[in-house]
Amino acid sequence: MKTQVGVLMALLWIQICWIRVEMQVEQSPRVLILQEGRNSSLTCNTSVAMAGVQWFQQNPGGRLIFLFYIASGVEQKGRLEATVSTKERYSHLYIRDSQPGDSATFFCTVEAQCP
Ligand SMILES: *[C@@H]1O[C@H](CO)[C@@H](O)[C@H](O)[C@H]1NC(C)=O
Ligand SMILES: *[C@@H]1O[C@H](CO)[C@@H](O)[C@H](O)[C@H]1NC(C)=O
């Protein structure tokens, strides 16, 4: 019985927290020209502390590819690497050794940390 109450309260708290958070997310640069063989990076920063960040890639055909969910440190996937600093409110996506096939829209979604 105690556990049930605990879960219920936790859910309620998360909901309240979601409503209270008004967050702005900024991604830069907006447009990045990839040069073959070069390294590039994108940054997402937010106005409130982050709990985690997701990075997606959308190909010219419209297909959406999930790349990373990152809550701390560094994650790597092939030539892509994501880092996050939840305290400093930013995440970087690095594209190493760019290939013509990397042309896509990259974007981030941010999970806010409760204040
Ligand atoms: C890209 O980054 C990798 C590892 O971070 C490095 O070894 C390589 O020299 C860099 N390439 C260029 C063109 O800067
Ligand atoms: C993102 O960082 C830039 C440069 O530090 C800052 O000017 C901007 O206000 C930040 N954006 C958000 C949404 O916090």
TrEMBL record:
Coiled-coil residues: none
PROSITE patterns in UniProt: IG_LIKE
Pfam families for this protein: V-set
Subunit structure: Alpha-beta TR is a heterodimer composed of an alpha and beta chain; disulfide-linked. The alpha-beta TR is associated with the transmembrane signaling CD3 coreceptor proteins to form the TR-CD3 (TcR or TCR). The assembly of alpha-beta TR heterodimers with CD3 occurs in the endoplasmic reticulum where a single alpha-beta TR heterodimer associates with one CD3D-CD3E heterodimer, one CD3G-CD3E heterodimer and one CD247 homodimer forming a stable octameric structure. CD3D-CD3E and CD3G-CD3E heterodimers preferentially associate with TR alpha and TR beta chains, respectively.
Keyword Disulfide bond assigned: yes
Species in which this protein is naturally found: Loxodonta africana (African elephant)
Keywords tagged on the record: Adaptive immunity, Cell membrane, Disulfide bond, Glycoprotein, Immunity, Membrane, Signal, T cell receptor
All copies of domain Ig-like, residue ranges: 23-115
Signal peptide residues on this chain, from the entry's feature table: 1-23
The keyword RNA-binding is assigned to this record: no
Main location: membrane
GO cellular component, one term: T cell receptor complex
Name by which UniProt lists this protein: Ig-like domain-containing protein
